[in-house]
Amino acid sequence: MIMSIASGKGGTGKTSVAVNMALSLGNVQLLDCDVEEPNAHILLQPKMIKTKPVYVSTPMVNEEKCDHCGKCADFCQYNALFVTSEKVLFFPELCHGCGGCAIVCPKDAIREENVEIGVIKMGMANGVELVYGELNVGEPMAVPVIKEVKKLVKKNKTVIIDSPPGTSCPVIESVYGSDYCILVSEPTPFGLYDLEITVEVLEKINIPFGVIVNRAGIGDRKIYDYCKEKGAPILLEIPFKREIAELYSDGIPFVAEMPKWKEKFQLLMDDIKGRI
Amino acid sequence: MEGEVSVTHGRYKGAHMKLKQIAIVSGKGGTGKTTVTASFAALAHDIVVADCDVDAPDLHMLLHPQKIRTQEFKGSKLAVIDRSKCTECASCKNSCRFHAIDDRLQIDPFYCEGCGVCAFVCPEEAISLNERISGYAFISKTKYGTMSHARLNPGEANSGKLVTLVRHNARQIAEEENRELILIDGPPGIGCPVIASVTGVDVGLIITEPTLSGIHDLDRVLRLLDHFNIPPLVCINRYDINRKNTDRIVKFCEKSKVEVAGKIPFDPVVTRAMVAGKTIVEYSPENIASQEIETTWKKVLSASKMC
Question: Of A21, A268, B198, B247, whose Cβ has the fewest other Cβ atoms within 10 Å?
C-alpha cells in the first residue's frame, strides 16, 4: 500500500510524521519526494548504498544544418527557443524536455542530449528503506527528479511518500497513485487555509485522506470545525511540546526518545488500513 | 498643501532612484517568511507587496487585501482528442514524454504539459490544444500599499510563470505609483517558482530556523542566491529553540561572509497575532520578536539601498 503525506503549507511536520511513522512500522519504504529540500535523510541518517543521476533531455542545435526557419521556436509552447536570422538561442530553464523541437525541425538539426539535473540516493536506516531525490541547485524542474524517485516504489511493501509543500505540479506528481493521503496541518489560519486548498487537490484526483493536527494546542479550533464539516477524519493529534521541537531541531525522530508514540503510529496505520 | 508637497517630493525622488526589490525566501517551509514579510510591509512606507507563493499564498490573511483587479492566468494548454477523427493508432501516446496519454488514449490533465507533440504527430489531425485557465492574478489595495498576488488553481503546473506575472504586475504598479520598493514573499523550495521569485532582486533575505533541516535547506537556498548573483542576508527565526544550532548558523554565515540580520525569539504571541489576522509588529509592538523584526527590517532596507 502506498501512503503519501502532504500539507500545502510548509513546515507543518510532514517529514517528521513520515519518518516517525516509518520507524514505528518498520520494514517500510520511505520515498522523500521533496527533492528541492529533502530532509528525511537528516532524521534517518541512512547508510547510503547507491546514488544515481537524473537526466532530462535538452535540445542541441547543429548550426551547420540549421537554416534558421524558426519552426522549432514556433512550436515550443514554453518559449525556450528563440531564432534569429543567424543564431538559435536556447533557454534551458524554460525547456520542459518534450522533444517537440527535434521532431518539427525539417533540417534534422536538433539532437537531444542528456543533462543531469539531480540525483537519486538510496539507503537503509533502522529497517527503513529510504529513497530520496536531490534537485541540483539552480535547476528549476523538480518533477523529473520526483518521477525517478517514484519509479523505485516497491509495491509489495508499505510505502510512505513524503511530498513537498504547496499544491502545484510537484505535489501532484508525489501523491498521484497513492492509496491514501495523510494531510499534516497545524491549527493556525495559515495551516487551515493551505489545508483547504490541498483538500481541493486530493478531491480532484480522488485520493482518500485524513488529517493529522500537529502542534495541537497552539492557534485556534477552526481546523477542527473545518474537518468536521468536510467529514475529514482527524487521524491523530501531536501536541505542541518544546521537547518534540527540540528533538527535531537536533535531527532526532521523537519516537526514538518517546517510545509510546510508536504504538500510536502503529494504531494509526491500522486505522488507515480500515478506512481504505 | 502637505499632500501636494509630499507628492512632488515623491516624484522627485522617483525620477532619480532605481526601483529596489527585496525577496523573502527560506528553502524550508514554515520558517516564518510570511510572518516576517507582513511585518515588513507594516513597517515600510511607500511600497508594493508581491505574494509570490502562488500555490499556497498566506500573506492575504495578514494584509487583508481588497481586490481591485482580477486577471485570468492562462499558463498552459491542454491536449484534447477529437474521438470522431481518432483512429486509435496511438502515435500520440508513444510520443508523449510526460506519460499523459494512457492505453485507452485518454489524456490525463494532471500530466499533460500542453507541449503539443501529440497534436503534431497525430496523422488524423484529431488533437488540438485548448487554452486552460490555470489561476488568477490580482491587484489589491491594502492599508500598507498596493499588493500584487495570485492564486494558482489547485494541482496546476507552471507556478513559475504565474510568479513572473505577479512580479510583472508589481513592477507596473511601482512605476504607476512611483514606489521605490517591491517586497516579495517567496515560496518554499529552490525550484522554478523560487527562481522566478528571486531573479533580478536586490536583496534576498533567507528566513531560517535552528534545526538541522533548517541548516541543510539554508545552505541550498544560499547557493541558489549565489548562483543568480543575489546578495543574501539571513534571519534566524525561533533562534532560542536550539541555541547550539543558532551558533552553528552564525558561524556558517561568518564563514560564508553572509550577514545575520536578525534573530527572532520563539514566542507564542506570534501565533496569537496570526489568529487575530494581524502582523506581529502591530499586534504587539513592544514584544521582543517585534523589535527584532524591526531591527532586521532596517538592516535589510539599508542593504537594499547599497546595491
Answer: B247
Residue B184 near residue B24, CB atoms below 8 Å: yes
pLDDT band at B18 (very low <50, low <70, confident <90, very high): confident
The H-or-E segment that residue A23 falls in is helix A14-25
Helix then strand then coil, % of chain A, to nearest 5 = 35, 30, 35
* Mean pLDDT, chain B, whole residue set: 93
Question: What whole-number distance in Å separates Cα of residue B29 and Cα of residue B17?
Answer: 34
Per-residue cell: A194? 493551505
Chain A CB within 8 Å of residue B136 CB: no
The per-residue DSSP string of B126-156 comes to: -EEEEEE--EEEEEEEETTEEEEEEEEPTT-
Number of alpha helices (DSSP H) and beta strands (DSSP E) in chain B? 12, 11
Q: Do residues B289 and B201 both lie within one domain?
A: yes
Q: Is residue B11 part of a domain?
A: no
Rounded to two decimals, the pTM is 0.93
Q: How far is A64 from chain B, CA to nearest CA, in Å?
A: 25
Q: Distance from A73 to chain B by nearest Cα, in Å?
A: 12
Confirm if A173 and A150 have CB atoms less than 8 A apart: yes
* CA-CA-CA-CA torsion sign (B278, B280, B281, B285): positive
Q: Copy the grid coordinates of residue B120.
A: 503534431
Using pLDDT thresholds of 50, 70 and 90, give the confidence band for residue B144: very high
Distance CA(B222)–CA(B225), nearest Å, equals 5
Would the pLDDT of B6 be above 70? Answer: no
Report how far residue B148's alpha carbon sits from residue B169's, in angstroms, rounded to the nearest whole number.
6
Q: Are A160 and A149 in contact (CB under 8 A)?
A: no
Nearest residue to A35 via CA among A123, A181, A146: A146
Q: Which residues of chain A have pLDDT under 70?
A: none
The domain containing residue A203 runs over which residues?
A: 2-54+119-275
Are A137 and A43 in contact by the 8 Å Cβ rule? The answer is no
Within 8 A of B156 by CB-CB distance, chain A residues are: 168-169
Whether residues A181 and A210 share a domain: the answer is: yes
* Chain A positions in Cβ-Cβ contact with residue B275 (cut-off 8 Å): 188-189, 219-220
Q: Per the structure block, which three cell numbers stand in for A272?
A: 488507515
Quote the ipTM score. Answer: 0.94
A147 exposed, middle or buried (CB, 10 Å; 0-12, 13-18, 19+)? middle
Residues A134 and A211 in one domain: yes
- The pLDDT value recorded for residue B154 is 85
How many distinct structural domains can be found in chain B?
2
